[in-house]
Structure formats: C-alpha cells, structure tokens
Amino acid sequence: QVQLVESGGGMVHPGGSLRLACATSGFPFSFTTMKWVRQAPGKGLEWIASIDYTGESPSYDNSVKGRFTISRNNARSTLYLQMNSLQPDDTGIYYCAESSDSIPRGQGTQVIVSS
C-alpha cells in the first residue's frame, strides 16, 4: 500500500523558514522521481519542485527558485523541502507525490505565512 505522509507545516511570519518532510512507503522510493506541489486557498494544484532518484538534478518553479530546496534521503525513503524567505503567497497546503501522479495521495501539510 502506497503511503505518503507530509509533516512540518505551520504558521510563520514573512521572511521565516520551514522544513517539510514526506515519509513514504509501499513503492520503490529510491528509484522514483519525486515532486512537491501546493494548493493555495481557492486555487488549483501548483508544481513547485522535483528531484530525480539520484537527488542530483532538482528543478524548481520560478516562484520558489533560490528560496526553496528539495532534497531526499533514499535510505529513509523521505523527501524534504527546505523553505526560506517565506512570503504570504507561499500560503497553502503542500503535498509530496511521485512525479507521475497528477493527484497527490497524501493529506498534505498546511503552511500559513502571515504577519
């Protein structure tokens, strides 16, 4: 059974940081390209970052490039997203997913950036 459990969200002030984690099981994580997507209030899913199975070729949406860092620990089957210089527009529910999945399977973790 495929499971993805996101954690690490919370409420921060603009300029703050958070580190999200996604614990996975039930599929060969070490050989799977992974991504983070988010859903802002009232909007659709937005891709923000991907990383291939080696962890050496991350890619980012322009809206987060230079502020967010995607990484992975294959030994722990865990995906991470370090988020720095957070802005109110970063508010939303963050999901991890296999790159091939159009709809995230996890519950997501909520991030609120507000003064």
What does this structure look like?
This protein is mostly beta strands. It contains no helices and ten strands. Strands 2-10-9-4-5-6 form a six-stranded mixed β-sheet, with no helix packed on it. Strands 1-3-8-7 form a four-stranded antiparallel β-sheet, with no helix packed on it. β5 and β6 (59-60) form a beta hairpin. The protein is globular and about 40 Å long. The mean pLDDT is 97.
Outline of the structure:
The protein is mostly beta strands. It has strands at residues 3-7, 10-12, 18-25, 34-39, 45-51, 59-60, 68-73, 78-83, 92-98, 109-113. Helix content is 0%, strand content 48%.
Features of the shown structure:
mainly beta, 6-stranded mixed β-sheet, 4-stranded antiparallel β-sheet, 48% strand
Estimated share of beta-strand residues: over 45%
User: First CA to last CA: what distance?
Assistant: 40 Å
Radius of gyration: 13 Å
Give a short account of the largest sheet.
6 strands, mixed
Kindly report the spatial arrangement of strands forming the biggest sheet.
Answer: 2-10-9-4-5-6
- The assigned structural class equals mainly beta
The helix count comes to 0
H/E series, N to C?
EEEEEEEEEE
Choose one word for the global shape. globular
Number of strands: 10
Low-confidence spans: pLDDT under 50, at least 5 residues?
none
The whole-number mean of residue pLDDT values reads 97
* Residues in helix, %: under 10%
